[in-house]
Design brief:
The chain has 87 residues and is of the alpha+beta class. It has one helix at 31-49, and strands at residues 19-26, 56-63, 69-70, 73-74. The chain has one domain (5-77): 2-Layer Sandwich (Macrophage Migration Inhibitory Factor), CATH 3.30.429. The strands form two sheets. Strands 1-2 form a two-stranded parallel sheet. A two-stranded antiparallel sheet has the order 3-4. The protein starts with 18 loop residues before the first strand and ends in a 13-residue tail after the last strand. The model has no long low-confidence stretch (mean pLDDT 89).
């Protein structure tokens, strides 16, 4: 969500490209998987968009499966997911 410069706090040493990314996901990924995601994002954002890693802040927020609702049920009740969460 873009903010007017006067409404956004930039930490020292950051440029106008300073970007905050928040990722919401179900619990179950290993620390190594989450670290790999962060590193891949940093590398791709730098190479494709030219935003320096210094200007990136990435936060992963996890919730238990029972806190995710879709298709009229919570994720802990879904039996037909086609992807693995515990990686």
């Amino acid at each position: 969500m873009p903010l007017d410069r006067s409404n956004f706090y930039y930490p020292d040493g950051r440029t106008d490209a300073y970007t905050v990314i928040e990722i919401n996901m179900m619990q179950g990924r290993t620390p190594a998987t989450k670290k790999a995601l962060i590193m891949a994002l940093v590398q791709n954002i730098e190479s494709v968009l030219g935003i320096s890693p210094t200007d990136l802040e990435i936060t992963i927020k996890e919730q238990p499966k029972h806190c995710w609702g879709f298709r009229g049920m919570t994720c802990d009740d879904v039996k037909d997911l086609t992807y693995q969460v515990n990686v």
